[in-house]
């Protein structure tokens, strides 16, 4: 981990927020980007007592308004945490962009392997791959058995066809972020 500046973290702002909002968090803090994601930035945060947390925030630069909603993500993970679906405990959310340049939330750190490459994935034995695959299916089945209304997420559940809704959303996002005209996108 690095004690130096890390892109995506306002160390003074985040440290002050952590100390005030996360029970037991003791400055100074060290931050490490957990690489491998392709959307929101995820950081491993360690305090002076060795406690480890995870901080998630939107990517740097221009982002589409609905694409990286940290408050919504925090709300969903918190609600799902009340079920049998295994998710990390959420510890706090910061909506004040003055603290870190963007909203973020903090959750418990869960030890586990992060596979960054095909080479790392190839090191998993066939038996372990089978067990991991089975576990993924079981967790997805458990997640799909959750009724959004029962965990106060019913207002997020759109009761219309997913595909048509997603195509409309992608079309809006394309219009908001395109840098050039592509005829195939207009078809």
In short:
This protein has helices spanning 11-21, 70-80, 97-100, 118-122, 126-144, 162-177, 183-186, and strands spanning 30-33, 41-46, 52-57, 90-94, 104-108. It is of the alpha+beta class.
What's the structural blueprint in terms of helices and strands?
Layout: H1 11-21, E1 30-33, E2 41-46, E3 52-57, H2 70-80, E4 90-94, H3 97-100, E5 104-108, H4 118-122, H5 126-144, H6 162-177, H7 183-186
Antiparallel strand pairs: 1-2, 2-3, 3-5, 4-5
Give a verbal description of the structure.
The chain has 187 residues and is of the alpha+beta class. It has one domain (11-186): Phosphorylase Kinase, domain 1, CATH 3.30.200. Helices cover 37% and strands 14% of the residues. It contains 7 helices and 5 strands. A 5-stranded antiparallel β-sheet has the order 1-2-3-5-4. The radius of gyration is 19 Å and the shape is globular.
What descriptive keywords fit this protein?
single chain; 187 residues; alpha+beta; Phosphorylase Kinase, domain 1; 5 strands; globular
**How many domain modules?**
1
Give the proportion of residues in helices. Answer: 25-40%
Tell me the name of the CATH class: Alpha Beta
Radius of gyration: 19 Å
The CATH topology annotation reads as Phosphorylase Kinase, domain 1
Q: Would you report the number of β strands?
A: 5
**Secondary-structure element order, as H and E?**
HEEEHEHEHHHH
CATH hierarchy: architecture: 2-Layer Sandwich
- Label the structural class: alpha+beta
CATH superfamily: Phosphorylase Kinase, domain 1
Mean pLDDT: 90
How much of the sequence lies in strands comes to: 5-15%
Task: Summarize the biggest pleated sheet.
Answer: 5 strands, antiparallel
Strand order of the largest sheet: 1-2-3-5-4
């Amino acid at each position: 981990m690095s004690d130096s500046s890390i892109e995506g973290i306002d160390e003074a702002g985040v440290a002050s927020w952590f100390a005030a909002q996360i029970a037991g968090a003791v400055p100074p803090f060290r931050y490490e980007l957990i690489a491998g994601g392709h959307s929101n930035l995820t950081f491993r945060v360690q305090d002076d007592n060795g406690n480890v947390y995870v901080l998630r925030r939107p990517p740097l630069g221009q982002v589409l308004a609905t694409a990286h909603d940290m408050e919504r993500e925090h709300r969903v993970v918190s609600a799902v945490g009340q079920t049998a679906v295994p998710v990390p405990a959420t510890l706090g959310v910061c909506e004040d962009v003055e603290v870190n340049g963007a909203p973020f939330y903090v959750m418990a750190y869960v030890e586990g392997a992060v596979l960054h490459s095909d080479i790392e994935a190839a090191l998993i034995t066939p038996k372990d791959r089978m067990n991991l695959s089975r576990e993924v299916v079981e967790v997805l089945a458990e997640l799909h058995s959750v009724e959004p209304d029962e965990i106060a997420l019913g207002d997020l559940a759109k009761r219309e066809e997913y595909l048509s809704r997603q195509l409309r959303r992608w079309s809006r996002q394309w219009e908001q972020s395109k840098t050039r005209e592509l005829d195939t996108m207009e078809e």
